[in-house]
Amino acid sequence: MHVTLSATLAANEDIARRRRSGERVLHLAFGEAGLPVHPALLARLADAGGSNGYGEVAGLAALREAAAGYWSRRELPTDPDLVVCGPGSKSLLFGLLVAIGADPGEWRSPGDMVLPMPSWVSYAAQAEIVGVRPILVPTPAGEGGVPDPDQVRSAVLHARAQGRTVRSVLATLPDNPTGRLARPETVRRLAEVARELDLVIISDEIYRDLVHDPQATPFLSPADVAPERTVITSGLSKSLALGGWRIGVARLPHTPDGWALRQRLLAVASEIWSAPAAPVQHAAAYAFAEPEEIVERIDDSRRLHATVARAVADRFARAGAKVDVPQGGFYLYPQIPGFDSSDELARTLLDRHGVGVLPGTAFGDEPRSARVRVATSLLYGETAEQRLAALHGSDPLSLPWVAESLDYLEEALGGLTTKEPSRARRGMFLAPAPAR
Amino acid sequence: MHVTLSATLAANEDIARRRRSGERVLHLAFGEAGLPVHPALLARLADAGGSNGYGEVAGLAALREAAAGYWSRRELPTDPDLVVCGPGSKSLLFGLLVAIGADPGEWRSPGDMVLPMPSWVSYAAQAEIVGVRPILVPTPAGEGGVPDPDQVRSAVLHARAQGRTVRSVLATLPDNPTGRLARPETVRRLAEVARELDLVIISDEIYRDLVHDPQATPFLSPADVAPERTVITSGLSKSLALGGWRIGVARLPHTPDGWALRQRLLAVASEIWSAPAAPVQHAAAYAFAEPEEIVERIDDSRRLHATVARAVADRFARAGAKVDVPQGGFYLYPQIPGFDSSDELARTLLDRHGVGVLPGTAFGDEPRSARVRVATSLLYGETAEQRLAALHGSDPLSLPWVAESLDYLEEALGGLTTKEPSRARRGMFLAPAPAR
């Protein structure tokens, strides 16, 4: 398990090092949204600098009210006092892991949790830090982010029969790494199983507003069908590209258990991070209120992410990969025949073809299934100007820097089946490497 | 142990509730610096809003270099790569607790730690979350922040004889709650003991720049005498009143062990908080470079904290309390005769005299010793204008709102010895309560 703590870091550092030494690497390994901050948020941050008091651990009332409104507009009426803010939804997920099921006065037995396989790198790594053992359950074929409910049931019953305490199950809607959105039927069935087994559902919905086509792939939250046991986490790192600002929000169940969980979560939060940076909270309150300019920005971002993720999936498919069409966010999770493991595949893509991705093993996937996570959001450009052109243009794929990267990728993938270095790769030291 | 997780929160919420209901309470329970943000830092924050990438987990290079310069100017030459930044030094202390001594691949045995008794509320609470058992060792009489070195030695040898693993000892220089600075001899002796027992020293120096009179009370860091085993944590919450901005820094030992600790700390950080808010990091880099205007601001703050803390200590002394003169920060820790416990004392001060403080038990002190922590920094005023007047005035004690609070306190304390409600308190419902 130890390796998962820094697999992403190590991969990204490796890519950065190669680039510094002049090697050309197409960086498809990092889940950063790759877009500039909306000017209205810059203005709010600047105005709020004087907010320097420690403030409430749960977050500013204005932010909690705005986040409550955000969920209420999505048919989840929300009490602002059951919203807890943190410096990134990652911190909240960690705090929840400690707080869920911890008995009062005894923090060291949070109980084990069920994770989808594959799932985001940090869930299992966080679990390791606090001594929670993850139970990895595969997602249904063609889906992602929600562990197969019937397998959850048997895995939990089996673990409990062995004396283990299992308290929670995690879902990611839509999913990182697969880019897929679990079907409503799957979410409903998970809710039934969770209710039968008395599991808390942690629903990581940080990509919710980036579902590419909400008509074609309707979004159902576990909180819609099992509100009494679902905690939702979200944030602005993806929809508004504010990863570096560190802001996340959690919505707790509107039940006595939810209130008790709030108290434990606040106790943990107060001892680890206190609260998100106060000026950031003010700007986030503006964003969660969803004024028109912010809604438009997210609409534009969603279109761009969808267009580029699908174009990249298309390149992989044409090269012979098995890849489900991305349905949300900016990821795809292709499987490539002819490789023995995802590590070998990722290494080959990097060393011989100049394409940086993360192996499926980083997401807890079977080492022998040759799948990699491809993040497409760093293709929009190197500068704010390029990125804004991609965001606002009618045809981002025709922008020279985007088209050039896609061509480079296509050539790299062409070499994969022959296992020869691609032409782009062979020429990589002939001319000085461009900035990207 | 559970209660320590939220004693401060509960006390502060109780005070806020009483004030909302119209009760007058002099708020001396909260360790917030109570001063406005320096305009140069507001400008840096506003300029850095566009910094929205996730960035390095260790922190921006500019910030790490500035913090390295800060320590280098204090005769601790520092490699910027051995600086790790976090959202508040609290988060770094938590991360260190997990990372220190954790064997690679096994995070759940961080080993126990020695804490001074009394010490800041969060050390023991953090330890509880990760399953570290604190060993509380009293400070030498008249000192604070450093556990008595000879008692540390015997306590650690005793614990080890019982099979416990003890890996670290913590010091707070200068101290919260006592407001005292450990003497250089005590620090030297602690370093010797730590070396003999192979303990890491965590030196929390967040109040370092607020030592009231560095000539009279010279500052010695454990890192000056045991650099190979000392981790320093610091931040800008106290010296520059940036608590709500959440920024802290840690300096790791310049040894192979220090580099290994860095890797583990980064692994933990990357899974819990990622990095401090990027715009805040840019502003903090400016502050840690210590340009003249920032140095002057800290000088002014130090003078104000010293003046008011001593004036409050004087009021306690005149009322018959046993109180050591504060030497740093904005706290004092008086003992008042005639009470059976610190809880009873704090409750009486709040219920009968309208003065909110924290009982010594919140800091792990003996329940039967009737000591309370008094924080004096919320006396500077309610508005930015009042606080700036206190900061820049030649005689802050003569400002009407400061003088009035001190008079109120004096009257309240006068009633303590008679155990009668004070006159101020008896009249508290006769007129509408003022804002504070």
UniProtKB/TrEMBL annotation, chains A, B:
Name its GO BP terms in alphabetical order.
Answer: amino acid metabolic process
Q: What protein family does this chain belong to?
A: Belongs to the class-I pyridoxal-phosphate-dependent aminotransferase family.
Asked if the keyword GTP-binding belongs to this entry, the reply reads no
Q: Which organism is it from?
A: Herbidospora galbida
Does the keyword field hold Transferase? yes
Per UniProt, which keywords does this protein have? Aminotransferase, Pyridoxal phosphate, Transferase
The name on file for this protein is Aminotransferase
Which cofactors go with this protein? pyridoxal 5'-phosphate
Give the matching CDD domains.
AAT_like
